[in-house]
Specification:
The complex is a heterodimer of chains A (253) and B (357).
Chain A (H helix, E strand, L loop, with lengths): L27 E2 L2 E2 L3 H12 L4 H4 L8 H5 L1 H5 L4 H10 L2 H9 L20 H14 L3 H8 L2 H10 L19 H7 L1 H6 L17 H14 L1 H8 L1 H17 L5
Antiparallel strand pairs in A: 1-2
Helix pairs in contact in A: 1-6, 1-7, 5-7, 9-14, 13-14
Chain B lengths: L10 E4 L3 H12 L4 E4 L8 H4 L4 E2 L4 E2 H13 L4 E4 L2 E9 L2 E8 L4 E6 L1 E4 L3 E3 L17 E3 H9 L14 E8 L15 H15 L4 E6 L8 H11 L4 E4 L4 E5 L2 E8 L4 E7 L1 E6 L1 E3 L1 H10 L26 E3 L9 H20 L5
Parallel strand pairs in B: 1-2, 1-9, 2-5, 9-20, 11-18, 12-13, 12-18, 13-14
Antiparallel strand pairs in B: 3-4, 6-7, 7-8, 10-19, 15-16, 16-17
Helix pairs in contact in B: 1-3, 1-8, 4-5, 5-6
The chains are: A mainly alpha (253), B alpha/beta (357).
Chain lengths: 253, 357
């Protein structure tokens, strides 16, 4: 965490929570076991060879306008400028460190598109995240751990948060009213005008055709395979759900 | 005097700013009759129109420096100055152009000219445009370089909102320049020097006022380095912070500027009393219009294209038509008067040389 935003002149340099950058030798990167330089190089090449990469990074003025508009930079030790600079400098070590740490602090709001050079640091983060997930990086597993329920919901139903997930014990910060709502959930839902929202176990009514198409997309694009690397148990459950349903429809893969 | 009917073909100079004045004087000094056509009712161009206080870097008052050029042109026996007038068409070819002039006392009339020099200049980028989030039209204490020039000229630098002296002033560099999203990808060349010069003048006038410059790169090439940049830091203690401001917000009766202090690696929010936007250059409406009237090529930004770069700075795509000053792109005063003189020499040479210039 960084200290609160401060004045440019006369203030002391903020202490960093831990050493950063390629110059620092360390057994562990961001608390995870280190890997060989070749492995890091391979990950970087995968990021750089992504089709989107040339449109996301032209060159960096290091002007910091992306940091100035970045909500995450105000609360975390995160800097879209460092993402763009590390990518521009092809700093393999630093990019690996960012993939194990920084990229999960980005909220993907894309305020950084304000860049005068037309860069998209948030987009670079998107690519780095995808590569991190594809390779089952420890940080990706850790970042996604808390989301296994959400991933299950999205991939099995196509809706993200279902009303029945809103239990008072799960979200204590939502206050005492949540208990009343969850007691009479079906009734509350029926009070919503669109009939497609009269659901409790999914966010809205999902048609059979949508679900089948969705499952096929997860399977054909390799999205389901990505889950295997980060959460094997979850992958097994999802695979079972999908294949069973597709079998019922008489779709063979 | 009226010289349009004399035997020698005249050089028509369009635009009465620094480049046009230099062109008119040079052509006349070489013995060629000159018609200097100015859209406004006075000569001097942007330094006079926008009330520039002192000329960078030597700090001579703009009115004095430009006054010298204006007097030299107005009193020259070979120059006819035509004010309040625009060129609306140009027919013929090099050595025998016919220009239609409109406006002024004479209404519409035609003149002959052997060659034309376009010196129609630039306009300041409008900082209220598009992606700009600086509140130029929203907050009275957000101003642009030329607005501060006018205050410096009056020796009265205040916050427009309340008339009080500012305790903290900042400049925001590269407003409307070097920006792919706005479409002005070029550097406007002079804003770093002008901002630093104004920063020193503010410190001179208000010694207790803190002055900051938020920048991407400081570009004070050549002698501007030690004429402007060093004294601004060493004598006037102007604070240079690498990091561009993303937005300006109201906070009480002051202004909060947000950016990143990139060398320190931290987001920052700083309170200011006066925010000065270092606006860049765009082609003036006159430059765009004259390019179309004369049928000469423009670059993607709308400036006149010099067609034989880099060693011929003034030839356009139409033989006999030359360009000078900020009509060609961002230019400081030295560049403007230099290309003005170069364009005039090339025009006169073309008319005199049996093989053309």
């Amino acid at each position: 965490m960084r200290s609160s935003p401060s004045e440019p002149a006369g203030a002391a340099v903020a202490e960093r929570p831990r050493a950063r950058g390629a110059a620092v030798k360390s057994e562990a990167v961001a608390g995870f076991d280190d890997v060989t330089y070749e492995e890091k190089r391979k990950l970087f090449e995968e990021v750089r060879s992504d089709l989107r990469f040339p449109d996301y990074l032209y060159g960096c003025y290091e002007c910091g306008i992306c940091v100035a508009v970045c909500p995450s930079a105000r609360f975390y030790d995160f800097s879209p400028r460092r993402i763009a600079q590390a990518a521009a400098r092809q700093d393999v070590e630093l990019i690996y460190q960012q993939m194990q740490e920084d990229i999960w602090e980005c909220s993907q709001c894309f305020s950084c598109l304000r860049c005068p050079r037309g860069n998209n640091p948030g987009g670079i983060v998107t690519i780095m995240r995808e590569v991190a997930v594809n390779h089952g990086l420890a940080s990706a597993k850790e970042a996604l751990e808390g989301y296994s329920r959400i991933i299950y919901k999205i991939m099995s139903t196509g809706t993200q948060v279902s009303p029945d997930m809103l239990q008072p014990d799960a979200f204590p910060d939502w206050g005492p009213e949540v208990a009343d709502v969850s007691n009479q959930l079906a009734l509350w839902r029926r009070a919503l005008p669109p009939e497609t929202l009269h659901t409790t176990s999914t966010g809205w009514d999902v048609s059979d055709r949508t679900l089948i198409e969705l499952y096929l997309i997860w399977l054909e694009t390799g999205a389901l395979d990505m889950i295997r690397d980060v959460d094997e148990g979850l992958h097994m459950i999802l695979e079972e759900v999908m294949e069973e349903r597709l079998e019922e429809e008489g779709i063979e893969r | 005097m009226t010289i349009a009917n004399q035997a020698a073909p005249a050089v028509a100079v369009v635009g009465g700013g620094p480049a046009g004045l230099a062109a008119a004087r040079t052509a006349a000094d070489l013995g060629s009759p000159v018609v200097l056509i100015e859209r406004l009712g006075f000569l001097g161009g942007m330094p006079i129109i926008e009330n520039y206080a002192a000329i960078t870097p030597h700090l001579e008052p703009a009115e004095v420096a430009m006054g010298r050029m204006i007097t030299a042109v107005e009193s020259h026996p070979l120059v006819e100055v035509v004010l309040d007038t625009e060129v609306t068409s140009c027919e013929g070819e090099a050595g025998a152009f016919t220009l239609t002039l409109e406006g002024g006392a004479g209404g519409s009339r035609k003149i002959s000219a052997g060659a034309v020099v376009v010196a129609t200049g630039f306009q300041h980028f409008d900082p209220g445009r598009e992606t700009q989030m600086y509140g130029y039209y929203e907050f009275p204490d957000v101003i642009a370089l030329q607005d501060l020039e006018a205050m410096l000229k009056d020796h009265h630098v205040v916050r427009p909102s309340n008339g009080e002296s500012p305790a903290r002033v900042c400049f925001v560099q590269c407003v409307g320049s070097r920006d792919r999203q706005i479409g002005n990808e070029y550097c406007s060349k002079v804003c770093c020097g002008i901002a630093s010069k104004e920063a020193m003048e503010v410190r001179q006038m208000l010694p207790d006022c803190e002055v900051f410059i938020f920048y991407i790169d400081m570009r004070m090439y050549g002698y501007w380095e030690n004429q402007i940049y060093w004294p601004a830091q060493e004598q006037y203690h102007v604070q240079y912070v690498k990091g561009v401001i993303s937005e300006v917000l109201p906070k009480g009766d002051r202004l909060l500027v947000r950016g990143e202090d990139t060398t320190m690696g931290r987001p920052m929010e700083v309170l200011m009393d006066l925010v000065v936007l270092s606006v860049g250059m765009e082609p003036s409406p006159g430059t765009r219009k004259m390019a179309s009237v004369l049928g000469i090529e423009q670059n993607k930004y709308g400036f006149v294209e010099a067609v034989q770069p880099p060693l011929d700075t003034v030839s356009t795509s139409r033989v006999g038509v030359f360009a000078a000053g900020a009509a060609l792109g961002p230019a400081d005063l030295e560049d403007s008067v230099s290309t003005g003189a170069a364009a005039a020499s090339r025009a006169v040479a073309l008319l005199r040389s049996p093989v053309g210039a």
